[in-house]
Fold:
Amino acid sequence: GPSVQFNFDAERLFAKSLRDMRQSQTKDGLVPEIAPEYVQFDWGGDMFRDSPEWGSSSIILGWYAYRWYGNKSFLADNYAMMTRYIDYLGTKAKGHILTQGLGDWYDLGPERPGVSQLTTPGITATAIYYYDLKLMVDIAMLLGQKEDAEKFETLQQAVFSAFNQQFYRPQEHSYGSGSQTALAMPLYVGLVPQEAQQAVFEKLTTTVCQNDTALTAGDIGHRYLLQVLHSNNRDDLIYAMHHRDDRPGYGYQLRKGATALTESWAGLPNVSNNHFMLGHLMEWFHTGLGGIQQDAGSTAFKHFRIEPKMLDALKDCEISFRSPYGKIYFNREQSKGNYQVEIPVNSQCTLVLPKGTYQVNGRAMEVQTVNVKEDHVEFKLGSGKYTITQ
Structure:
């Protein structure tokens, strides 16, 4: 989703996709993995039809689209579908744990890729279930459904307790099998108790480094791995995991002649070689290298931050994104100490740069400094074009 949104104006496409999900939802509330569901893809039982990691698009996409475009109809039009799907997942859960579906599809394990190999069954499905409930609390409150919000919050806490009882191994600061996905997903969705979060994150980074920073996370886990590393300022590990071309990954696919994303990290010739599912790194190009991120309480990028990472390894970076308010542009020529910024009309930006003395458009910086720390400074910028020099 986010990788698409940074490259295309997908508002109408997402509305259409959600409408397809509504029309494909079954009487008992299941949102199948394919919508429109012209044919039931039920090879291997129901695992290809009933996988919470896919069906939860009916909730997650609606929320993301609302945040991206500021259009509350993404929530209002789909609220009935969302609540019915939550109810459906509740009927499938055993002790608040979901185990059906494909899991971390096409993770990189010892066998031919397919159904998750490395992550304990139930971790990804239950983590997504918890994330659904977390989002539904906010969605219900926005739509004035307070009683629903209270119900979702109560159920969310029950899933939290069941998940940790079932999968958490406190002596090892680990979840389930301890794979990249098994550690990253609970951290991202908020399933790790606060007092254990740092230890579990350190376990994750140790796991990554012990594997020579090679990727193992699949279609589901890869995005959450990127998000957790980025939010904890370990963009260096993201870079280390993705810049090589001598092992399965993006560069490896290119070496094998790929002209589109492939279904497998290894670019296997006997599976799909025009597949959309492993494109999560494009989001990090914008939010990590370029540093463009929407503020937590904002919609449609009316308020956003530009906080570029990897300044020591990648000196120069130019990135743009056309938000609903207009073009957001950031160009850093750090080797020269120059930065160009463009902020759309009626938008505000918090720009985060290395600590120092700056001039804006040839003048001493007059914008308000909102925060100064040891290694960086934050500035508030209104709409306009800026050339910033040290």
Summary: The domain at 293-389 is CATH 2.60.420.10 (Maltose phosphorylase, domain 3).
